[in-house]
Design a protein that fits this description.
Elements: H1 2-15, H2 20-23, H3 33-55, H4 58-80, H5 87-94, H6 99-109, E1 123-125, E2 143-145, H7 150-160, E3 168-169
Parallel strand pairs: 1-2, 2-3
Helix pairs in contact: 1-3
């Protein structure tokens, strides 16, 4: 079952046609440490291995995930700025889910430097941000739902990131 999930999510990331990646959290950020560590070992690490097989390098995976983030941001901006939106974007808005958090978890597990990144206009659910460097990253106009770590992450993010309007939601 886990292998099928990993294969499906790899395919979705490669094609940018996100279903399971959006509807399922790959890890539960607010879970107990041993549960989260098990999910990282059994889901995130094999997923990264599958992505490395397809994309050949961490940098290529990062580029693909950044393209998906860019797509999410542009769709989100359409709504927050009152622009006319397509039926696809309208459907997408109704289906906001775990994509932002899943991408952040993957980027963190890839052990990339996430400083100076643009994570604005994103909804981030179930992201474990404890060990990543987000210095000068932009989370503005997004929604961060970070589970039990929300207070600690809010302080960290407000010190390191541009955060003029980021609602924090406790899960």
């Amino acid at each position: 079952m886990t292998e099928r999930l990993i294969e499906q999510v790899c395919q979705e990331i490669a094609t940018q046609k996100l279903k399971l990646f959006n509807t399922h959290a790959l890890i539960k950020a607010q879970g107990k440490n041993y549960v989260r560590n098990t999910q990282i070992r059994l889901i995130l690490k094999p997923l990264i291995d599958g992505l490395l097989t397809h994309f050949r390098s961490k940098r290529s995976i990062e580029n693909q995930l950044n393209q998906i983030l860019s797509m999410l941001r542009s769709r989100s901006r359409s709504f927050t700025e009152g622009n006319s939106v397509s039926k696809e974007d309208e459907k997408f808005q109704l289906e906001l889910g775990y994509t932002g958090g899943n991408i952040l978890n993957l980027l963190c597990q890839l052990e990339l430097d996430l400083s100076n990144h643009d994570f604005s206009h994103l909804t981030v659910w179930q992201a474990d941000l404890q060990h990543a460097n987000f210095h000068n990253s932009n989370f503005s106009y997004g929604i961060l739902a970070l589970g039990n770590a929300s207070t600690r992450c809010r302080v960290m993010l407000s010190e390191w990131c541009q955060l003029p309007s980021v609602p924090m939601v406790k899960c």
